Amino acid sequence: MWLPMVALSKLGRYDIVRVLGKGAMGTVYEARDPNLERRVAIKTIAVHGLSPEGVEDYEARFR
Question: How far apart are CA 41 and CA 6, in angstroms?
């Protein structure tokens, strides 16, 4: 999933609590799932520098 470099407070149905870690491959967030009323971790993959086909390949692999 591609995300712009902005401060997040929500990602889909999830409420972002904080950044757990950041690296060359992406970012991991601590979030809250309001439907299940529990904490979850969400990993986003950094796709900067990839062609549109490369982004589609990543999305297909991690779906």
Answer: 18
